[in-house]
Each structure stands twice: as C-alpha cells, then as structure tokens.
C-alpha cells in the first residue's frame, strides 16, 4: 500500500510538473530546454498523463530535461513544440510552438476548415480541460496574413479567409490602418502626407511635419492596400514636394542647389491671406543644419513605385516631373574633384540626421543613389537632352556598382585579406587601394564576422574603413540589385548567424555596434540622445521591418522576415507604436521615443502586405541589369602608360 501510495504521489507530482513546463512570456518565465528526442514533449489529457509520469521522471533524473536559471538561455536557438491531443472521439489537435523569442498558437485542424483567427465551433469540456491554461498563455495573437508558416501562403486562395478580429477587439492590422488614417495632413482639402507622429503626451517639435523619407512606407502601404489601393495621396505628395523643390533655398545667405528636395514640410494657416500655406525645411531647421541628401533619391524611387503600381505613366512624363528628376540627377552627377563614383556627403544627411561619424561616403546614401539612378533610367523620356543624361547615368551605374561590390564588401575571406594588408603601396598594382592600416580594424569585427555571411561596410575613404553594419544600406543594396545574388545571400546568412545582435527582442538595429566611451565622446560629440544602444547609436527601429521584409523576399528567405514580424507583433501595438527601442537587445522603449510614430505603423503594414502578397515586392525592387552584372573595369583601368 505504501508503494502504491508513493507511485500515486509521483504521478500527481508529474502532472503538476507538466503544467509547470508551460512557458509564459507575459511573466517572463524561463523556457524549458530539451535535448534529442525530447525536443517534442506531448502533454496529454489527465486520463493519459499517468502513463508517461515514470518516463518524465526518468528523463529528469537523467538530466535530459534542464531548467535554465535565466531567461537568456531561451535565446540560444531554443525550440519547443507542444502537441495537445484531443480526448478520444474529438478531432484535430492544437500545436503551440515556441522558437527563440516568439510563442505562437496555430489553428486547430478540422475537417470543416477554420481560419487562423478563430475556433472551429464549441470545444468540449474535456478538451478545454486537456488544453489547460496553455492556450491562453500564447502571447502571439493569431496572424491571419502570415499564418503559422509561410508555406500556408500557397493555400490562402482556397482556404477560408481569416477574421480581422479576435474576442471582439480590432486586430493589429485594423488598428494600424485606423491610426495611419488619423495622421493624414490636408492641403486645400486634399491629403498630401502624414504627420511624423501623433503623440498627445509629448511636445510636437518637428514631429507635426510631413517628412519625405518618413512618408515612403506610408505611401507604399496605400499603394499595396487591399482590396482597394489609394494612390491619390501618393500622387498629391509627389506633386506637392516637387512644387517645393522649385522654391529658392537660402540658409545664412548661401543658396542651395536647385535640385535639393525638402527634408519636410508642414501646412500652416496664414491669417493675413486667410488660407493654408506650406512651410518647407531644406535643412535650415535641422539639428546639424544639413541638407537631406536622401530626400531626392526617395522621391525618385517613390515615383517609380507609384508608376509601377498604377500603370499611370502620365505623371512621370509631365514636363515638370521630368525637370524635377533631371535637377536631382544633375546635382548628383555634376563634375568635381572626385576620384570615386560614390557621392561625398556630410554627417547627418540621411535618416541618421545627427553626428554619428557617417561623413564621407556612407553606404546608405550610395545604395539609395544607385537605386535612384536605375529608377530614373527607366522613367526619363527619350529626347536629345535626356539621352545625354541617360548616358551619364549608365556610366555612373557601371562604375558605382563595381566600386561598391569590390571595396565595400566584407566577408571572412576579405577580412583576412585586409588583416594582412601591406601599407604605403605606391603603384597602380597596389592591393591596399585606400592605404588602410590593418591595426585600425576594431576588435569586435573579428568576433562578429561569421564563417558564413558578409555585408557592405558603412564607409570607405582614404585610410578609413567604417566596419559598422548599417541595415538600410544593405537592404537597399539587395532591393536595387547593387548586391549580387551571392552577396544578397551572404547578407541574409549574416542576419541569421547574428540574429541576437542585429534583431534581438525588437527588430531592427539601425547600426551595429554602438559607439561607447571615448569613441562615443569623440565621434558624436557627447550627444545625449545618441547614447550607447539608443536612437541612431545602436537603437532598434520597428520601421525598418518593411525594408528587411522586402530584402528577405527578394533574396528568397521570407522565413527570416516572418520571424521578425512575429517579434514585432508581440509588443509594438501594446507599447503604443514607439519610434525606437533602447538596449542591446531592443528590450526597452526609447528614452525619448515618440509614441504612435507614423512610420512605425506603416512599416509594419508594408511588411505584412508584402508577406501576404509577395508580388508587391515589384513596386520597390529592381532586377539585376545584365549589362552591369560583370563590370568591364579592372583595378588598373585608371592607370595609363602614357606620360
């Protein structure tokens, strides 16, 4: 009797233990790591649990089930799949899978078919008891457009459509559309853009303006919107910013180039004229008084996206639009003292609009420059004047692609080559073209660089290589086909290999690693907003999700994007759609982050719409130009024997 009683007690303890194995993200409990065959642990109903109690206890005694002592253990590629079997007579099963930082519940299978957001009828009491509280502990809401696997996308056309609500509350997508609509800015009763943020708890500052780069994901969202796209706001925005380009731009008695596009604009009411007027900022009100180099490039790229989506070529063919494109291109293609095809820029001229050591030839600007050149190449009308410009564009594209692909690319092999560079080479046969001192390679690069993977480094100029990772430049390089197929694959490999560093708990790092200590003081000038792992200095920006998603689809790795989307869905809406997150893992809402940031909202929408319909990628992607796939240039092309 004592032995029987002891076994019964062990069985009860095993049942309790099984309940404790459930991972609760809300309470941040440690995940259970299993090994070998125990990677999949079946939790059965109370009637069946006694059959497995002895086996579970044996596994524990043999150290085959381990309880981590801290939550970071779950970050090491940990995966647990729990199958909840229904009682005899009930059909289907529920699968709850947890991979790394995400926990997601899939749909109960049913012969009648169900959607990703609902349940197939009433569950029996026994079935509910068998599921226990685990069903309620899955933190990820069902995501109808993504599903439990991207493989489900191929069946969307035949399956039942998912519901947009769960338990009567609006879905995250519905909320995003609603908030995006509420940020519209109107001029003469027409929508012309969206506010940067609508945060009633913070001072507006310049967040009550329409930023050119900020509006791009919003524009793409409305071009991709189903079932009815809304391209009108995109057309209005393109024409209104084109109108602002024609203004005279003077800062401290200095006149800017005619082709400069505004960084932002806002609508104001002029009581004297008794009408709305526009006020544009061309950099004169910016933190560092720097003109936005990227605005013109984004404008050309968005014009091509609008044309691709609507099939409306009349807008791009308008004389004023053609003139606007030419002004931007002439500004960038003008002759100077440059010996490189890359574009020389000041610090703070792009999304990173504060001092962060990107002066020179930053990869973000070079990739956008390349992308804009290729888009303009498609949209310029054929005439005598345009043909000369197109010829200059083609030559620049060829030279720029060669330069970036060869001198900005870094993988394990190239890092080893740079490490062994000789210096002071004075000859056309020099291998170390920029006289980079190997001792200047930062220590972190050697640990960061995996054997599999690579990326375009941040900057290359005489005696200087900025080895930091910048997400925008690398993703744009993939979308514009500046990166070769092999390089695009290697970039995706790097993201997977260094997931914890580049993605963390909230996607995505704008730059990696953060500047700290003495380096932070010298490079940023002790910028209190760009402290380590915050804002532009290693902060995590949800808006970048759309760029990563597009790049992943283009590179044939959509599962990476799906995993990042799931991470965003865990917190972004709950946290109030913040501008950025702080911390090495992106765990904390940014110290000075605005809530209800418009491009955080639109970035999520565009990512979801592209995963839902990958054909949307065509709006923001270019295929490789075969003429520039194999550059005719050689390393000694600039050298001549003649004297």
UniProtKB/TrEMBL annotation:
Q: Is this entry keyworded Oxidoreductase?
A: no
Q: What is its EC number?
A: 3.2.1.26
The record, for InterPro entries, names:
6-hairpin_glycosidase_sf (IPR008928), 6hp_glycosidase-like_sf (IPR012341), Glyco_hydro_100 (IPR024746)
Task: List, in alphabetical order, the GO biological process terms annotated in this UniProt record.
Answer: sucrose catabolic process
| Gene3D superfamilies (alphabetical) | 1.50.10.10
The biased composition feature labelled Polar residues covers 1-16
Q: Which residues cross the membrane?
A: none
Task: Report keywords, A-Z.
Answer: Carbohydrate metabolism, Glycosidase, Hydrolase
Q: Where is the composition biased (Basic and acidic residues)?
A: 55-64, 117-130
Q: What segment(s) does the record annotate as region Disordered? A: 1-151
Top-tier EC class: hydrolase
Reaction(s) catalyzed by this protein? Answer: Hydrolysis of terminal non-reducing beta-D-fructofuranoside residues in beta-D-fructofuranosides
A molecular function (GO) term:
endo-alpha-N-acetylgalactosaminidase activity
Bias class Acidic residues marks the residues at 21-30
PANTHER family attached here?
ALKALINE_NEUTRAL INVERTASE (PTHR31916:SF37), PTHR31916
| Summary of the function given for this chain in its UniProt record | Invertase that cleaves sucrose into glucose and fructose.
Tell me which family the UniProt entry assigns to this protein.
Belongs to the glycosyl hydrolase 100 family.
Q: What is this protein called?
A: Alkaline/neutral invertase
